[in-house]
Amino acid sequence: RLHAKQAALVAAAQLPAPxxxxxxxxxxxxCCIVGPTEQAIRMAGLVQDELGVTCxxxxxxxxxxxxxxxxxxxxxxxxxxxxxxxxxxxxxxxQPLHPAGRGELDYEAAKPTxxxxxxxxxxxxxxxxxxxxxxxxxxxxxxxxxxxxxxNG
Length: 153
Prior knowledge:
This protein is α/β, with parallel strands linked by helices. Helices cover 23% and strands 35% of the residues. The protein is built from 4 helices and 7 strands; from the N terminus they run αβαββββββαα. Strands 1, 2, 3, 4, 5, 6 and 7 form a 7-stranded mixed sheet that branches. Helix 2 (37-47) links the parallel strand 1 and strand 2 (52-57). The longest helix is centred in the N-terminal third of the chain and has 12 residues, at 2-13. It starts with a helix and ends in a 13-residue tail after the last helix.
């Protein structure tokens, strides 16, 4: 009996490994960055040459001068759904940066709610934690997770 078990293990080890599941993802290069002003603008500077970037700042940080490389708005992320290559985002109190020709740079009037879509998103771990905790496990497997795996990112 011992020899039959060993032979079976050797035979099993010689079988090809199962193929890992793969999914084709198409991207149009649209990225949404959500976070405090300083961090969001710094991250936009890192990816602006590769992606079309919109920064949604969520603090009372100083208004950044507009850039031709990315858009800036102020608001609170209230929902994020989908997976890599196809995210749908929901915001509250969204205020696009008003392009000022003359006068002081400021944000436009707040929209109560707004929706957007992007291929990839970058946010603070705490923002991701707030959105993902309490959601069903199958939603979390769709391409977003908390960095430490515990929801304490």
